[in-house]
Every structure is written in C-alpha cells, then in structure tokens.
Amino acid sequence: MAAQNGKDLLIKVDQTGDGSFQTIAGLRATRISFNAESVDVTSLESAGGWRELLAGAGVKTASVSGSGVFRDEGTDERARQVFFDGETPDFQIVVPDFGVIEGPFQITAIEYSGSHNGEATYELSLASAGILTFTAL
Q1: How far is CA 5 from CA 9, 10, 63, 97, 109, in A?
Q2: Among 12, 35, 40, 61, which residue's Cβ finds the most Cβ atoms within 10 Å?
Q3: Rounded CA gap, 100 and 103, in Å?
Q4: How is the chain split into domains, by residue range?
C-alpha cells in the first residue's frame, strides 16, 4: 500500500438513524486502534511449558480518536447530543485504500479548547459498543 494522506481517514456518524452518514467536520488528526484480549488456558500439561491461548475467545474492542475544528453546526450538535444522551449510533471509519469499519460507538470524551489568537478546537474519543463490520475498498 502506498503512502496515504492522513486527511483521507474519516470519521462519519449516522446523523438521523436511517443510515445517512456524514463526516464529522473539521478533523485534522484521526486514529483508530483494535484490541483483542487473550484467554490463557495454559496448564501443567501444556507442551514444553509454553503458554496456550484459547482461539476465538476474549473481548474485541476498537477505539477511535480525532481532533480538529468543528466547522459544521449539524455534526457538532449531533456529536454533543450523542455524548450527553449516552447514545451508541452507527459510525463509519473510512481508511483510504483499506476499507470501511462500521458499527455502534459511544463517544467517551469531547474536549474543547482554544487560544486567544486561534480557533476553537476539539478532541473526540469513541469506544466500540457492539459488533463492527469491515468492508474492503
């Protein structure tokens, strides 16, 4: 895979619950990570004393974070409302030349900041809240 523009990694939220996704405005930096807990089933009978893990077990999680400038009132308002209502709407994470991760996420943090001679900025963190799907591009 060739080098990609970081700005092409997008976080989109289902604005109305009908599958209509819209990019959360003004993102400048975005990050997604996937994790899977392991379940250790090592016993005295494990060959050579090597650790054994139970395949397919454990909790899978995804976390997403982004920062930037809200430039669109609709997505700013939607993100705030999702956070304060504790909703878990569907989001799409678009990774260029890789695919689209889609499923429910909860906004776990929104941080706003600004400086005297600059624009107001925000940081957004999301945690997976159900089954995620992956569609290759």
Answers
A1: 8, 11, 21, 11, 25
A2: 12
A3: 10
A4: 6-136
**Tokens coding 106:** 């909860």
pLDDT tens, position by position, 68-119: 887 677 778 888 899 999 999 999 999 888 899 999 999 999 999 988 888 8
CA distances 82 to 8, 13, 16, 76, Å, are 24, 10, 11, 10
CATH entry 4.10.410 includes domain 6-136:
yes
SS3 (DSSP) at 128: strand
Please give the model's pTM, rounded to 2 decimal places.
Answer: 0.83
pLDDT at 5 (0 to 100): 60
Q: Give the position of tokens 């209509």.
A: 20
Helix (H) or strand (E) holding 79: helix 73-85
At residue 2, the pLDDT reads 63
Task: Mark residue 107 as left, alpha or beta (left: phi above 0; alpha: psi -120 to 50; beta: remaining).
Answer: beta
* Contact between residue 91 and residue 108 where contact means Cβ atoms under 8 Å apart: no
